[in-house]
Amino acid sequence: SELYRTLSQTKDYYDIYRFNTWSIDEQGSITGIHPPHPDHESWEEYVYCMLKGWRISPLQGLIFSRKAYERIGGFLDLPAGWGSDEAIQIALSGKKGIALISGAKVRFRRSGDNISSQVHSRSQLRARVIAQLSLLKWIMERIDERRSNDVPFNNDVLRNVAKQYFRAVLPEIMRVGNLILLINSFRFAREAWHDSYGKLTLT
User: Fold this and answer.
1) What percent of the chain stands above pLDDT 70?
2) CA angle, corner 101, sides to 54 and 107, nearest 5?
């Protein structure tokens, strides 16, 4: 199979591998083709592309080492598991990057029962928003720990795309209608990008 061929070719070097993926509905019909992945990607490149919306990598399309999984302490604890797929890829690719299993695709079913299909109530929206902000804060901590002159780009590039992501999430934060969440969100933005409430532009 393509999986074992890739593992053999790379001599099991990587801690995490991934397939390209398609979305299917309850009947198994293809509803979406996710952007194809490169053969190899560093965690920084993945973060940049993921925050831009250029990466969709559901857990079903990932293969990773149990030893590496235990080394990083498992999945990041996020409300309802929102963002855990993205976090596990960042954590596991920190040292060696992510490798592609080419020539095969995984079909990801959006059945209406998984969390990707369930954002119908305000409480579900609130859980997703909190997860998005928690993931973003965790990513910012990883960026701050990174040497700024590391290739392929400096930390400002990652901080700027993270700020763009926060701006995109902000309308959903306001839709939740929770004042404490809104205040904490602006406090996070001020600490992350040294913006005051009045200076945080949304365009």
Assistant:
1) 88
2) 65
